[in-house]
Amino acid sequence: MCAGAPTVISKGRYAPSPTGPLHRGNLRTALIAWLQSRLTDGAFILRIEDLDQPRVRAGSDLQIMDDLRWLGLEWDEGPDQGGSSGPYYQSQRGSSYQQVMDRLQEQGLTYGCGCSRKEISKALSAPHANPGVYPGTCRNRAGTSNREGRVLAHRFRLSSQPIRVVDEILPPRRYHPSQEVGDFIVQRADGLFAYQLAVVVDDAQMGVTDVVRGADLAESTVRQLSLYQALGLSPPRFWHLPVMVDGEGRRLSKRDGSGSITSDRKEGISPEKVVGQLAASLGLVPAGSLLSAVELAEELTIRQLRSRLRQAG
Question: How far apart are CA 45 and CA 68, in angstroms?
Fold first, then answer.
């Protein structure tokens, strides 16, 4: 940062997975994340979450960047222009994840788990079991390999203490993580680091203060807050947007190509129309508005953005 430059009071990010073309729900999240950063005179980061390499589609990262710029969104740090928080591809950040894993292991906060999905399902079918919560079968077992010598996955050992989740859009909620969530995987048996660990490490190391994402990821927040607490880190503010659906009420999906922005561009739809439609879907502007991302930022204050998003949620 240049001498005399203002201190960055907020830092937002958009972190897509390069598994296919963006749909309108993805773009709406990117737009609001960018808008939140700009309305607080903050910095905006683009990070590519390509940790799960088998699902990555070659060239998707470049298409994502092209689509975002077509919409009028620019970033201050990212894979194509660098910055002080890089690298900006998760696949290049493995050493950072390993350092944190080592730290958690030294604190006794992880343990090896050799449970198969079938074994977990069987345990969860028992009377009084909480559906979807890992029953803790391997919690008190020692070692990193099971009897067959197979390398185990690693789970994070959750505290029994409650956690209060505060959101900028959704109402606050109190969780008992060990009962409602259960110890979760932070490193798979194949060595791949899990999303929950990677995203906490990335956001913390990059200095992210605000995370804007879909409400379908809201349940991940308590897991991530548990990791922040264990590592002695301050968590970001969370903004969970309503999930965007199609005309039949189904959630948009990359897998079926629904709401693809690639199709919009091929049909000659202008970025101003798309920005207007995305903003109107959240009550930020009247329906039928045509405006650029920059013009949208000029229409709102951060207080108005928060208020209207809460109404939309």
Answer: 12
Question: What pLDDT digit, counting tens, does each position of 66-105 carry?
Answer: 999 999 999 999 999 999 999 999 999 999 999 999 999 9
Query: According to CATH, where is 3.40.50.620 located in the chain?
Result: 11-92+198-312, 94-197
Give the CATH architecture of domain 11-92+198-312. 3-Layer(aba) Sandwich (3.40)
CA distance 47 to 87: 9
Q: Do 43 and 16 form a contact (C-beta atoms < 8 A)?
A: no
Q: Residue 132: how many CB atoms within 10 A of its CB?
A: 11
Record the tokens describing residue 274, joined without a space. Answer: 């798309």
Which tens digits make up the pLDDT trace of 175-186?
Answer: 999 889 999 999
Sheet of 184-187, strands arranged across: 110-113, 153-156, 184-187
Over residues 146-172, the mean pLDDT reads 87
